[in-house]
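Quick one - inputs below.
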Amino acid sequence: MDIEAIAQERRPRSLAQGLSSLRTCLVKCKDKAVDLGRSIKKLGQDDPRRVIHSLKVGLALTLVSLIYYVRPFYDSYGISGMWAVLTVTVVFEFTVGATLSKGLNRGFATFSAGALGVGAQHLACLFGEEGEPIVLGVLVFLLAGAATFTRFFPRIKARYDYGILIFILTFSMVTVSGYRVEKLLELAHQRLSTIIIGGATCIIVSIFLCPVWAGEDLHKLIILHLEKLAIFLEGFGSEYFQSVNEDKPVISTEEKTFLLGYKSILTSKNMEESLANFARWEPRHGRFQFHHPWKQYLKIGALVRQCAYRIEALNGYLNSDLQAPPTFNKRIQEPCLKITSESSKALTMLASAIKLMTDPSLASLHLHNSEIAVDNLKILLKTTSLEDTELLSIVPAATVASILIQVVKCVEEIYQAVNELSDLANFKSAVKPKVSPEKPQAQLLIHLGVVKPVVNIGGNKGDVVVTVLDDKIPENENNSRANYPDQPL
Amino acid sequence: MDIEAIAQERRPRSLAQGLSSLRTCLVKCKDKAVDLGRSIKKLGQDDPRRVIHSLKVGLALTLVSLIYYVRPFYDSYGISGMWAVLTVTVVFEFTVGATLSKGLNRGFATFSAGALGVGAQHLACLFGEEGEPIVLGVLVFLLAGAATFTRFFPRIKARYDYGILIFILTFSMVTVSGYRVEKLLELAHQRLSTIIIGGATCIIVSIFLCPVWAGEDLHKLIILHLEKLAIFLEGFGSEYFQSVNEDKPVISTEEKTFLLGYKSILTSKNMEESLANFARWEPRHGRFQFHHPWKQYLKIGALVRQCAYRIEALNGYLNSDLQAPPTFNKRIQEPCLKITSESSKALTMLASAIKLMTDPSLASLHLHNSEIAVDNLKILLKTTSLEDTELLSIVPAATVASILIQVVKCVEEIYQAVNELSDLANFKSAVKPKVSPEKPQAQLLIHLGVVKPVVNIGGNKGDVVVTVLDDKIPENENNSRANYPDQPL
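Output:
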């Protein structure tokens, strides 16, 4: 075969190869575009406020651009109008609190640094033409160094970091440009007023167009976390004992991911702190006053996280390969299930108390029930005979029981903190049961009753909570109705 | 007494009161000043790099101010010189990585947005004098909205958030000011070049004057976390069993705070992630290449946190009020102490392997020992007779044992991850023992020996690790020398 023939044979093949690789490339590109489209859609659907926020930024920027387009504005502000554009881009944040924080920080910092800069300028003038740049340089060095150092203080960093940055920026720019630009005061005035225009545009658009309040987000986040703990505890009880009894996991992967919602609590500290920081800047909105006790939310958040750490430890025992003897499991199953379901109900009620901003004392009934269940569990563990069982096989179950007891302690602490929040924020009161909160006796095990509370939704002072006494043990512990013993609480 | 007399009597008293309140006020002010001085001193002493960083910012700002002071510079850049000042203030960050990330983001964003802005300007020109502002307004709205939305993508937010901000800023400013300022290209060129001057100043000062590398900080942070886990485990073993045996805590409050160092690991996720993000921007420095596997550090960090969650659960049992029978405690004490001390040693060795960047396989000896101890513990728990003991009283001790078993699993995973890091980053190899890693037999309990390894510090390939076999059980398990069974590893 001669070379030409080989070449001819190869040409179509390489053409076909080229076409196929082009096709693969196109398919890949299409796939990537589809993926991108999907992730954009998901991002928007997960929180539609993101789309609204993007539109709001566009709107605010277009509004301040008017300064340039409209002749009278331009004539009075000139090129300084761009500071308004700059301010909007930098100050506009997702939440009202963050926008206010940045806007006010920027405003005050510009004003104070501007004034100080003019002062420094005058001081430097006294040192003659040659001394001036040296004095100004030294001043910039000292002030920038000192201000940068203050940014390392955690409390200042949390609240005024941006302000200090703008302070350094403005001071340097005023002192430095003052050395050349003669119309210093006019420049400072123009800059300040355009920044005020930009900042005001941001704040107005942020507050009056579908506002996103950091405070409300923090409020909802804490509620969500409480609910996630409740979901885990409710699911854990049934999942653990069913899988232990029937020797196989009874829960689908989907439900499992649902159960694992609590994982996000473990690393939520920074988010809570920044939301609380921004919330402090926000004016009265919805049901929140200006001095709403946001710090208390952080306290609750920290306790919720403590509880989540315990739950993380519990989660490690969900698919344990060691099986306790069925008789032992059956014995501890009842109090353990009671603990998980009652703690879960207590947490759900605490979440709904925060949500409705009503007194959380109704949750104490469930908390109390879980404490009784803890006592019962302890009695059971005390009286269980272990003659025929290997200790090793019951260690996982005993560990679960032991951690559950700790979880109840955590829930108690959360209850106390929510109570404090209720006092601090003047939550509407629900009527507390007029009975003494005596420590229940262990005999309760023998005689359980059911109290169905009619939760008072309106929650005005003086409303009466109607409770119905029902003297039989519920057949299904897992239903959603609340179970209480008919003992003094 | 007439009024004058009363007034005379009161005057000195109110003067005295005034003086005393002034004194109190002065004392308070002095106290506050002293407190402030102390906290400033502490802030500087905790990390002296903070002071150096502050001085560096001052220096960089003074350097770019030269643009204004020096006539030739000013003549070519004019008022645009202030962009250099602005860039330095905003871009200069604590670590080199953060400074580079911000500087490069700012540079590229300014360039691309400037070019796009000029294009938009030309496009708008086509629509005539009346159409131009409308087209520009629509373009600004669309681009600002779209760019703001992309900032919600977590991956983009982590790396390019600042770049997108500057992109929006520059695009708006170029299009908007282009509508008025005729010398658009000159303006864009001046802005870009002054930004480059500012950015370059930052980067040079940041890199060549006592640099703070984010990568090195991440490296040290992970080492510190491993050491903190090791300290807790070492302390926990002795503390738990001594307090249980002697019925009182034997540890001082000071030591206790030392033990609780691990708490900072629980919430360190954000810090690790931001350090890793910045580290990616950093050039080769010290022992770290440009493509050092920083992601693997995040993986190790996550596993260390998992271990810290378990340890947080353990910590809850340090001062348990339930006392197990001394005989039971004595039985599980030995394997439990072995687990804690060997895991602790394994973690310490892993930390030092990362520190020295040598192969971590030496830690496998300790890990192996702790696995043997786990097996022994399981055998003990299997064979323990519980005829005379209450289950309730041994639950805490059993829980501790159970969690310790989980901790060993965590340490194993950490070991794997550090091994992967060692492969990825080409750590210097230490000689691995030439024996098969067979699962040890439980009989090991009966015949324990000691291997004293001579750790090879130089760690060059081919070096031989000398091990000394010593065939007796060590008298004191708590001493710092490493104990190994004389079985194949």
